[in-house]
Amino acid sequence: MANMSHELRTPLSAILGYTEILQEEFGELEEEEIMDDLGRVHKSGHKLLTLINSLLDLSKIEAQQMELNIESFETKSFFTDVHNTILPMVEQHENTFSMELDEKIELITADKQRLEQILLNLLSNAAKFTENGHIQLRVSQNEQHYVFEVEDNGVGISEEEIGKLFDVFKQVGSSRHGKRQGTGLGLSIAQQFSRLMGGDITVTSQKGVGTTFTAYIQKSLG
């Protein structure tokens, strides 16, 4: 699977690229119906590209071929980007979003791209199963780890479901919001990335109250 990266990504990237060109052209002509259709095509293509990238990441991890790019980066701009990326998804279900950052953490040393994937996967999962609620990202540290907590007041998860959350292709809790959760790739990859960076992810939840995912990243990386 890892060797198929180019073959999988190239045609899909072309589809997305041409869709964007058509959106620009028809947007100038104010063809709303066509624009709506192109928007659906682009959104579906983007979802497929995300799935392909997730599968490739997972295959690299399983083959022990995943290489981390450890660097020190400024936290304020990093979390501003996270906020701006996740906010549209949070607001789709009429949710609010806030962040609580430890001001003493001015720099984080980690794989910036993988940490962003971890947080966006956890936040998008919270957004998917919370409606008219609140989602919060809290960032702190202890002696050995950076700590990232994603808390929501959504539908919650049973103890039985928690045990299956990180299993790839397990569609946990199809009854949550009355719909299927998906492949389970996002949470599994988030956990694997956390472990690659010397940490892990834990979950606490209560049905009808909400859920908290906590990701730990080792501070002494690099």
Global shape? globular
Total helix count? 6
Remind me, CATH topology of the largest domain? Answer: Heat Shock Protein 90
Low-confidence stretches: none
Structural class computed from helices and strand pairing: alpha+beta
Report the β-strand fraction as a percent range.
15-25%
The CATH homologous superfamily of the largest domain corresponds to Histidine kinase-like ATPase, C-terminal domain
The number of domains: 2
Q: Give me the count of strands.
A: 7
Instruction: State the order of secondary-structure elements, H for helix, E for strand.
Output: HHEHEEHEEHHEE
This entry's quaternary arrangement is: single chain
Descriptive account of the structure:
By secondary structure, the chain is an alpha+beta fold. It has two domains: 2-62; 70-218, Heat Shock Protein 90. 48% of the residues lie in helices and 22% in strands. The protein is built from six helices and seven strands, in the order ααβαββαββααββ. A five-stranded mixed beta sheet has the order 2-4-5-7-6, with helices on one face. Helix 3 (75-92) runs parallel beside helix 4 (112-128). The radius of gyration is 19 Å and the shape is globular.
